[in-house]
Design brief:
The structure holds two protein chains of two kinds.
Chain A (H helix, E strand, L loop, with lengths): L8 E3 H15 L3 E5 L3 H4 L2 H6 L4 E3 L4 H11 L5 E7 H4 L4 H9 L6 E5 L17 H6 L5 E3 L4 H12 L5 E4 L4 E3 L14 E4 L4 E5 L3 H14 L4 E5 L2 E3 L3 H11 L2 E8 L4 H12 L4 E6 L9 H7 L4 H13 L3
Parallel strand pairs in A: 2-3, 2-4, 4-5, 5-7, 6-7, 10-11, 10-13, 13-14
Antiparallel strand pairs in A: 1-8, 6-12, 9-11
Helix pairs in contact in A: 1-8, 4-6, 9-13
Chain B lengths: L7 H22 L4 H6 L1 H11 L15 E4 L5 H10 L41 H14 L6 E6 L7 H11 L5 E7 L2 E2 L2 E2 H5 L4 H7 L3 E5 L5 H14 L6 E6 L22 H9 L9
Parallel strand pairs in B: 1-2, 2-3, 3-7, 6-7
Antiparallel strand pairs in B: 4-5
Classes of the chains: A alpha/beta, B alpha/beta.
Keywords (chain A): Thiamine pyrophosphate
Cofactor (chain A): thiamine diphosphate
Family (chain A): Belongs to the transketolase family.
Chain lengths: ~325, ~280
């Protein structure tokens, strides 16, 4: 099992803020909108340096999505910022009609996704957003794993023409991906090659998968770990190549098992390579208040859950 | 500069043909929305044949052009006909309205690339937000042209329109002209019976808008001065709203003034009866 050294832990939302600031300096077409959460979204540096390219919308997310769609007309690249819940479920129809169906070059940037915003509870957590967004034709769906990758993804999506959903979060997590690693939309990243099981992880679960890989190695299980930062388009080639080798797969995500990464992988395997699969995800419930660590443990989204899922899936191999 | 710059007589001439197109289009597929389309014919014809600086050689970004957004997308027939008659595409294509593989979807869309359409609409209440965003980018780009948006009156029951109204006033989006098709009708009956709008003028004024009233949006002599005044009021720190009184179904006697023809197509006999009242001024498609 490879080692993944890191010097500090940081929040992915700060990666977004850093990426947005860099875009402000390098791409004059980038503009930003926020619905009364500039601090939470770490948009302050961009706003300070480029006040004329920032639009405060107030607590009116539906209007924000429509404004952003309109701002593409004239050649700008709008980045919207609010919590993941208010970026998706609250404004699904606005995204569907004014952004996705209209093919608008809007970047919907969503913080505090999943359980890990913690104490605010289920009204502010969302575990359905990947599903909602991946179901929209034309929509690209990205869920990076750490600060560096979120920053790189933020920068990369400005160069891609079309609607994007970029999902990140609040807690600090080990910042282990190389700062100079280029972000390629739709290209899975091999983290650790192995032969016994494929672990496909996204977002905050990527680091948990690395921790699980170490525990598995101690048990003599050689896990292949792949970072699926792009949920749609899914890197089916990388997934199929890995599962052909290992014969089984565990998917890990901070999301409902309905509609998430796991279901996308299951569809690919069902069509092309039927194989045992286990899901590390939230089992169709809402979240609740608690610390991020408590919630990840209670809802089975930690390294121990991944190890158990690996043991189950290996036992199902023929 | 408008590429036509028509006077009232010339506009009336176009309006007759647009009305013929509308009733023929909805009749041909036995579906669509003739009532609101007929009611907004003078408005759309005025914008495209007199008021707006625009290029029928369509460009999505519309830099240096006035832009129009139709928020109440169900009145697509009047927009499609006006665009075709203004040269955005061949009027023959109007025959494909609502048919399989057509660029003329039931509600306006960009997916099939119909020239003149910049955003999909149909699910109501989204147009004012889109138009406001486009207007702000015109300012950011140093483009002094205007952005027009049309909504229905029943559509004002959607909360998002008031989010946009609040925002546009706060941000002083004064290159935006929002016209409300104030025909007093919606699908389930008169607006006053379904969900009364109260004092609409006072509502918009309270939100910080300049409000103009058009007594008769089905009369060019009443409409054009109001459109000119709206344009003259732009650039003064406030967005502009036109409350445009119209009659649903205007121009076809048995469709006028009732919500009954909101989303119902005429049958063969009714089409004949309608066409008798509408001169063929340009060639039928």
């Amino acid at each position: 099992m490879k080692d993944f050294p890191y010097s500090e832990s940081k929040d992915t939302r700060s990666g977004f803020g850093a990426g947005l600031l860099e875009l402000g300096r390098t791409n004059p077409n980038v503009v930003a909108l926020c619905a009364d959460l500039v601090g939470s979204l770490k948009m302050g540096d961009f706003i300070k340096e480029f006040p004329e390219r920032f639009f405060q919308v107030g607590i009116a997310e539906a209007n924000m999505i429509g404004l952003a769609a309109g701002m593409t007309i004239g050649g700008k690249i709008p980045f919207t910022g609010t919590f993941a819940n208010f970026s998706t479920g609250r404004v699904y129809d606005q995204i569907r009609q004014s952004v996705a169906y209209s093919g608008k070059n809007v970047k919907i940037c969503a913080s505090h996704a999943g359980l890990t915003l913690g104490e605010d509870g289920a009204t502010h957590q969302i575990l359905e957003d990947l599903g909602m967004m991946k179901m929209l034709p034309h929509m690209t769906v990205i869920n990076p794993c750490d600060f560096n990758q979120t920053k790189a993804a933020t920068i990369a999506i400005a160069d891609y023409e079309g609607p994007v959903y970029l999902r990140f979060g609040r807690p600090v997590v080990p910042n282990f991906t190389p700062a100079d690693q280029k972000f390629e939309i739709g290209k899975a990243l091999m983290l650790n090659e192995g032969k016994d099981v494929t672990i496909l992880a996204t977002g905050h679960l990527v680091w948990k998968a690395i921790l699980a890989g170490k525990l598995l190695a101690e048990q003599g299980i050689d896990a292949e770990i792949i970072n699926i930062h792009t949920i749609k388009p899914l890197d089916t080639e990388a997934i199929l190549a890995s599962v052909r080798k290992t014969g089984c797969v565990v998917t890990a995500e901070e999301h409902n098992y309905n509609g998430g990464l796991g279901e996308s992988v299951a569809r690919v395997l069902a069509q092309q390579l039927p194989s045992p699969q286990e899901f590390v995800a939230v089992m169709d419930t809402f979240g609740e208040s608690g610390t991020p660590e408590q919630l990840m443990e209670k809802y089975g989204l930690n390294e121990q859950s991944i190890v158990s899922a690996v043991q189950r899936v290996i036992s199902r191999k023929k | 500069m408008n590429p036509f710059n028509y006077d009232a007589d010339q506009l009336l001439n176009v309006a007759y043909q647009v009305r013929r197109d509308i009733v023929r289009m909805v009749h041909a597929v036995n579906s669509g929305h003739p009532g609101g389309s007929l009611g907004c014919t003078e408005f759309l014809v005025s914008l495209y044949f007199r008021q707006m600086t625009h290029k029928p050689e369509f460009d999505m970004n519309g830099i240096g052009e006035d832009l129009f957004f139709l928020s109440n997308g169900h009145i697509s027939p009047v927009w499609y006909s006006t665009l075709a008659r203004a040269g955005y595409f061949d009027p023959k294509e109007l025959a494909t309205f609502r048919k399989l593989n057509s660029r003329l979807q039931g509600h306006p869309a960009t997916e099939e690339g119909l020239p003149g359409i910049r955003i999909a609409s149909g699910s109501l209440g989204q147009g004012p937000s889109v138009a406001t965003g486009a207007a702000q980018i015109k300012k950011l780009n140093g483009d002094d042209k205007l952005v027009y948006v049309l909504t229905g009156d029943g559509e004002l029951e959607e909360g998002q329109v008031w989010e946009a109204a609040m925002y546009a006033a706060h941000h002083k989006v004064d290159n935006l002209i929002w016209t409300v098709d104030y025909n007093g009708q919606q699908i389930d009956g008169p607006v006053d019976a379904v969900m009364s709008l109260g004092n609409l003028r006072a509502k918009f004024e309270a939100f910080g808008w300049k409000v103009l009233n058009c007594d008769n949006g089905n009369n060019f002599a009443s409409l054009i001065p109001v459109l000119d005044e709206a344009k003259a009021l732009s650039g003064q720190g406030q967005p502009i709203c036109i409350l445009m009184n119209t009659q649903m179904g205007f121009g076809v006697d048995f469709m006028m003034g009732s919500h009954k023809w909101h989303g119902v197509a005429p049958n063969d006999a009714q089409l004949e009866q309608a066409l008798v009242q509408l001169k063929e001024t340009l060639n039928d498609y």
